């Protein structure tokens, strides 16, 4: 009997020592011991993470040493790859735009800047421009002719000429000034009907495929000023840049159908005939 009591006391001391060691140990590993017959309920059967006991107000509490991954966190390597891809895309866009600009052919190097006075700047009256729309994708011709009038060497006189011509056309035909653009002796381009409307010359061909440019002045026996020729070049280049004129455009002069030889020899065309894209004359039914 005494041996049994001794064995029970010894077994109780062993269990108590084991429990005390588990409670006061700084690290407890979750495990299932078949031999010792106990299981850590705090960790769970599948838990394999060590628990760190920290002291909190005199009591110990378990803290996991393994931190769960944040699902919204972007890995630094992935972020770097995305930034590099974005940079490469931007470089590709810039190169593409540059190559596209190179494909726009210019007829000549232009040193003279392009000056434009738009229609609202010289015509501020109630009668608005009403003209058929121009198919910009089909504009392939430029016809140049002179106005057979007095010159204008400054903006004031050129604006006065446009205003008087607009009034005369409206009073006679209830129509607007027929040119798309006019170039004055001051080296400035004046917008008449512009790039978006058809010209108003009933005796000139290709109303839906042509821009008509008038050189203000009479240039039968003398050439326009160099600044007018330079502005005409700048106008053609600007029209191509705005995609309002095909780079493969055709340049023409206009002659009277009844006297083509006389109009074909006027001084205005002596220089234009040496320009690139010159394709000869078109006939007019009226002088």
Automatic annotation (TrEMBL):
<dbReference type="GO" id="GO:0008270">
    <property type="term" value="F:zinc ion binding"/>
</dbReference>
<keyword id="KW-0472">Membrane</keyword>
<dbReference type="GO" id="GO:0008745">
    <property type="term" value="F:N-acetylmuramoyl-L-alanine amidase activity"/>
</dbReference>
<keyword id="KW-0391">Immunity</keyword>
<keyword id="KW-1133">Transmembrane helix</keyword>
<dbReference type="InterPro" id="IPR036505">
    <property type="entry name" value="Amidase/PGRP_sf"/>
</dbReference>
<comment type="similarity">
    <text>Belongs to the N-acetylmuramoyl-L-alanine amidase 2 family.</text>
</comment>
<dbReference type="GO" id="GO:0045087">
    <property type="term" value="P:innate immune response"/>
</dbReference>
<dbReference type="Pfam" id="PF01510">
    <property type="entry name" value="Amidase_2"/>
</dbReference>
<dbReference type="GO" id="GO:0009253">
    <property type="term" value="P:peptidoglycan catabolic process"/>
</dbReference>
<feature type="domain" description="Peptidoglycan recognition protein family">
    <location>
        <begin position="114"/>
        <end position="256"/>
    </location>
</feature>
<keyword id="KW-0399">Innate immunity</keyword>
<dbReference type="InterPro" id="IPR006619">
    <property type="entry name" value="PGRP_domain_met/bac"/>
</dbReference>
<keyword id="KW-0812">Transmembrane</keyword>
<dbReference type="InterPro" id="IPR002502">
    <property type="entry name" value="Amidase_domain"/>
</dbReference>
<dbReference type="InterPro" id="IPR015510">
    <property type="entry name" value="PGRP"/>
</dbReference>
<feature type="transmembrane region" description="Helical">
    <location>
        <begin position="77"/>
        <end position="101"/>
    </location>
</feature>
<protein>
    <recommendedName>
        <fullName>Peptidoglycan recognition protein family domain-containing protein</fullName>
    </recommendedName>
</protein>
């Amino acid at each position: 009997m005494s041996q049994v009591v001794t064995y029970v006391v010894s077994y109780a001391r062993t269990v108590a020592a084991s429990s005390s060691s588990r409670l006061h140990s700084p690290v407890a590993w979750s495990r299932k011991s078949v031999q010792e017959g106990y299981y850590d309920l705090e960790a769970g059967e599948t838990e394999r993470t060590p628990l760190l006991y920290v002291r909190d107000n005199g009591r110990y509490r378990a803290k996991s040493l393994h931190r769960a991954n944040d699902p919204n966190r972007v890995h630094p390597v992935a972020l770097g790859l995305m930034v590099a891809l974005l940079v490469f895309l931007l470089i590709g866009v810039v190169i593409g735009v540059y190559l596209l600009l190179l494909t726009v052919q210019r007829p000549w190097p232009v040193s003279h800047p392009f000056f434009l006075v738009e229609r609202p700047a010289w015509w501020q009256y109630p009668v608005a421009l009403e003209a058929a729309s121009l198919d910009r994708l089909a504009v392939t011709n430029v016809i140049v002719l002179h106005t057979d009038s007095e010159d204008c060497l400054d903006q004031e006189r050129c604006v006065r000429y446009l205003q008087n011509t607009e009034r005369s056309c409206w009073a006679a035909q209830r129509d607007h000034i027929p040119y798309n653009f006019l170039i004055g002796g001051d080296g400035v381009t004046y917008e008449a009907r512009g790039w978006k409307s058809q010209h108003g010359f009933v005796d000139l061909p290709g109303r839906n495929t042509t821009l008509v440019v008038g050189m203000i002045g009479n240039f039968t026996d003398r050439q326009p000023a160099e600044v007018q020729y330079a502005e005409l070049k700048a106008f053609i280049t600007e029209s191509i840049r705005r995609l309002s004129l095909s780079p493969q455009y055709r340049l023409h002069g206009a002659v009277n159908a009844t006297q083509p030889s006389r109009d074909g020899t006027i001084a205005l065309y002596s220089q234009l005939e040496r320009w690139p894209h010159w394709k000869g004359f078109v006939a007019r039914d009226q002088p």
